[in-house]
Amino acid sequence: MNAVQTAIPVKELLREFLAEASGIPDINDDTELFSTGIVNSLFAIQLMMYIEKTFNIPIAMDDLDFDNFSSINAIANFVESKQL
Amino acid sequence: MEYNRIAIIGAGNIGTSVASTLLLYDIKTLLVDTSEQQLENSGKEIAKTIKFARLLNNKLPKISVDAAMKNVRFTTQITEVRDCDFVIENVPEEWNIKEKVYQQLDEVCHPETVFGINTSCTSITRAGSVIKRPEKVVGVHFMNPVYLMDTVEVIKGEHTSEQTLARLHSLLDKIKKTSVVVNDFPGFVSNRISHLFMNEAAFVVQDQVASPKQVDAIFRECFGHKMGPLETADLIGLDTVMKSIDTLYENYKDSKFRCCPLIKKKVYAGQLGRKTGKGFYDYFNV
Q1: Which of A34, A42, A65, A75 to mutate to test the interface with B (most CBs of B within 10 A)?
Q2: Which is it for strands B86-89 and B151-156: parallel, antiparallel or unpaired?
Q3: How confident is the model at residue A21 (pLDDT cuts 50, 70, 90)?
Q4: Contact predicate B125/B100, CB 8 Å
Q5: Which pLDDT belongs to residue A8?
Q6: Phi and psi for B284 in degrees, rounded to 5?
C-alpha cells in the first residue's frame, strides 16, 4: 500500500471522529483544529488517545508538537510518517 | 522546602488533576480514596495526562509515564497519610464527609502537617474548627485542568498562620503556580461569582431563551471567555456544581443562590457532564 492510499482512510476516519466529537459535520482537511476551537485543551488528550488506538501508532513525547496535529491533513501526514 | 510525600485525599476529577500535576513536577504523591474503582480510574487518567500534557503546555517538565507512575501510591487507607508533610483534600463538597475526613486526618498526621482544602465553597475556618491545629488549615482552590492553569485561589481561614501560607506557597512555587490570596467567606471570590453565571445560564436554557451552545457562544465570542458557563459546569461536574450552589444558598439564605431545577434534574438523571459523557452537552469518549 503506498502513502496516498494509506492517507485516504486515515482522513476519513479523522473527519468522522472529529465531526462526531465536535458536532461540526464538514470540517475541511486544512482547517486549523486548535485555533478554531474544534479541538480544545480538554478534547486534545482524547484525540491523542484516538490516534494511537485507531492507527496503532505510539505518540512519543517528542511528537507532541501542535504542528503534527493542527489539521486533518497534518494528522494524516503524521500518521503516515509513523506507519512507514 | 522539601516534601516527603504529598497526600491527595479524593481521587475524583480535581484530585486526579492535582495528582497529575504534582507527578509532572516529580513530586512524590499518595492518592487516597474510599473506592478501589475510583483509584483505578484515576491511575489511568493520570497516565494519559502525563503522557500528553506537554502538547498543551510545553513548559511542563519532560517526564516519562513510567517515571511519574513510580512516584505515586494509591490507597483506600487514610492512615497511610501519616508520613505526609502536606495534605490536599478534595473530597465531595458535603460537610458531613469533610468533617469526618478532617477528624481522621487530625488523628493520623504529625503535628507539622499542613492541610490544604481544595474547595470551592467549604469554609476554611469551619474545617479548622474540627481539628486541634486550625492554624495549619488553608484553602487552595485549584482550577481544572490543574496542569494548564497558572493561578490558584488561596483562602486564609480565620486562624491560618503565615507559616502555613508560606508552606503552601513553597509547594505552589514547585509546580509553577502563582496565587491570589483572599479571605474566608462562603464561595470566596471565584465560586460566589462563577456559580451565579452557571446557575443563571441553566435558567436561560430552562426558560428556552437559548440553547447551551448559544449561551456559551455569547460568553466565548462576545466576552472573550475561554469557556462558556455551561461548558464549565459540565467540566466541573453538575453534581459538584449543584452542591456548591446549595452550599452558597445555605450560607447566605439569598434566593439568588437557589439551584436551577434543570441542573437538579440532570443530576438526578445521572447526566453529570463530561465525566458521564452527557450533561448540557454530549461527549464522545474514546
Answers
A1: A42
A2: unpaired
A3: confident
A4: no
A5: 54
A6: -105, 110
DSSP state of B94: -
Give the integer Cα–Cα distance in Å for B8 and B45: 15
Euclidean distance between CA atoms B233 and B120, whole angstroms: 13
What does the pLDDT look like over B212-222, one tens digit per residue?
Answer: 999 999 999 99
Q: Does B64 touch chain A (CB under 8 A)?
A: yes
List, run by run, the mean pLDDT of 10-residue segments along chain B (286 residues).
86 96 97 97 96 93 96 97 95 91 96 93 93 97 93 97 97 97 95 96 98 96 94 93 92 96 98 93 76
CA distance B199 to B175: 32
Q: Are strands B137-141 and B151-156 parallel, antiparallel or unpaired?
A: antiparallel
* Chain B positions in Cβ-Cβ contact with residue A20 (cut-off 8 Å): 284
Which residue type, as a one-letter code, is found at position B267? Answer: V
Q: Cβ separation of B55 and A46 shorter than 8 Å? A: no
Contact B207, B182 (CB under 8 A): no
Chain A interface includes B145 (CB < 8 A) = yes
Helix, coil or strand: residue B180: strand
DSSP helix/strand/coil, B91 = coil
A16: nearest CA in chain B?
Answer: B284
pTM for this predicted structure? 0.86
B246: cell is 446549595
A24-35: b or e for each residue (b if 16 or more CB lie within 10 Å)? Answer: eeebeeebebbe
